[in-house]
Amino acid sequence: MNISEAVAERILELCEKKNITVNKLSTISVVTQSTVNDIVNHKAKNIGIVTIKKLCDGLDMTITEFFDTDVFRSLEQEMY
Prior knowledge:
Distance between the termini: 15 Å
Number of strands: 0
Oligomer: single chain
Structural class: mainly alpha
Mean pLDDT: 94
Shape: globular
Low-confidence stretches: none
Largest sheet: none
Number of helices: 6
Helix content: 55-70%
Radius of gyration: 12 Å
């Protein structure tokens, strides 16, 4: 799994946990619906930290909380 896939997985997990749709997340985060859809549908490859911060704000959590999961701890180094 790469970082963009992990971010997508985490967003979907948090939406389910908070019982909100991805579209609702885009509204409360002030991130365009197309951007959030691109992230969760694995079309966005370089997700900016500002976008992740806005999504975290919408989810009422810190960036540290967002990334503090096993999925991010187990990511392998990406070499390009």
